[in-house]
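thread from #wetlab-drylab

HS: before we spend reagent money on co-crystallization trials with alpha-D-glucopyranose, can we at least see a predicted complex? here's what I'd submit
DV: go for it
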Amino acid sequence: MGGGTPEAVQERVRAVLDGLPGRDVDLFVVRLRRWWDDLVEGLAGPYGGRHDLDGLLERVAALLAERYRERAEELKLLDLERSIRPDWFQDPAMVGYVCYTDRFAGTLEGVGRRLDYLGELGVRYLHLMPLLAPRGGDSDGGYAVRDYRAVDPRLGTMEDLERLCGQARRRGISVCVDLVLNHCAAEHSWALAARAGDPEAEAMFWIFPDRELPDAYERTLPEVFPDFAPGNFSFLPETGRWVWTSFNTFQWDLNWSNPRVFVEMAEVLLNLANRGVEVLRLDAVGFIWKRLGTSCQNQPEVHDLLLALRACARIVVPAVVFKAEAIVSPVDLAAYPGVGRHHGRISDLAYHNSLMVRFWSAVATRDARLATLVLGRLPAKPASTAWATYLRCHDDIGWAALDEDAAATGWSGSAHRRFLADFYAGKFPGSFARYLDDPARAADNRWLHRPAMDWDLAGRRAEPGTVARRICSALVGLAEARRRTPHLHAATPVEVVDLQQPQLFAFMRRHPLGTLVAVHNVTEQPRRVSPMALYLVGHDPAGGPHQRPAGPGRPWPGRPRPLPGRLADRPRRLSGQPEART
Ligand code: GLC
Ligand code: GLC
């Protein structure tokens, strides 16, 4: 072995792997060596100094070897394939589909019977919303997990999940499942033991004897659900204590400053991966580290812990990638694909929340300036990562317009946010918003975005002249066009450009095969873009890329090239939306 891996770790790992074919042991050892420094660095930040780091590393290494022993041959082969093609999830052909198992097809087995449909749509990635055993009653759509080792019995069993992952994989569809890292249900066995006074279980959570620390934390904590779950702490009547609950009172925040939480979650992750899950959605990951005097979101330790978790995955289940769910400001968001020393080392995918929000803001105002400003400033992501771009998901939209950005567009931040909320609530004259009127779900309006699949309607896609057919063929066409457009590979940098028309949002992707220019009109009126406007932002259809002038209308630096008489690849005007893809 060697590398920086200490003797004691090597011996322990070899003992666990004893009896496996030599080549399998070699592979594990090579990977352990490759990712060892990441593991050490990731654990040293949060745990070094206060805990026995060497002991922890040894324990984690043994756990990794044990889970590797259990990995099925078919999945080990997938690990190899993905090591050879590590950009698989960045491919322009990647199109994601997100659904609730029950609302889509009843059970996991039912989903297996709908894979043809997903294949027809060009889907390559299937995110099944939370499906592990939740608490009874309200479970925040499954995000209050009672047992990480069992599937919700209404949906099926772990064996069903494993079977479905295999069926999907053989059709080129990767299954994504949520890893709810920040909290578990108040009914999880850890929480029950903590309620009963077991000190080891108590140490898995943030439990306080009185309001002193909760009040101190509250001074700088934002609220996630101010309407139906105010405050970040919940009272435990049995003992008169308080427990940290960032989300609902039945979702207890896990205490990641306790290394046992890390070990337990690493194990949950590897178990899911060994069932054949290929993408893990790291739910509300920004919340896992708490620091007094801060918002307790996106702390540096979050990224260290992700670095360590990813190292675990790289060593045991390298076919698997992470998708960070961090619904945060653009600056904080950039930290999830990784900036600074974490660059490209933590999450492979991250939700592009900024793009989603700016889209809805732009179509409501018919004005794309804020999108151009905010998205234009987003730091470039590492070339080895991809944004999960989407138009809507199962959650609400936080309008996330900074006051200074709004001011740069000549708007007041608070007035703009109020306008958007009213517009989409249908309260603003001229709004095209429609809403559902369902008293049972009125308290949590996120149910608006969680409809049940209408298979009769979907069946009509076979009938000419129907809306269903029009929408399906447009979607399939879009997926096809993406597949044929290598510029959309996620390694190609995106450059937002300002065409000096508030109605247009535009970007370029410079690729060795040529530059892709995408211009999006956020209004219902046609707009024209002159070749000169594109030339001024740096697009040269006649040749390779040229330097963009210092600013629109500024004197040309150096000798101007002649403008081409006609544009060879005139940009197509799309009807309003930035690409929707994962
Ligand atoms: C995530 C989910 C959201 C849930 C929350 C708590 O952000 O997307 O639906 O309420 O985490 O788990
Ligand atoms: C907040 C959280 C996000 C969660 C959402 C639930 O935006 O930051 O993680 O998805 O609330 O609606």
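DV: The chain has 21 helices and 18 strands.
HS: ok that's useful, forwarding to the group
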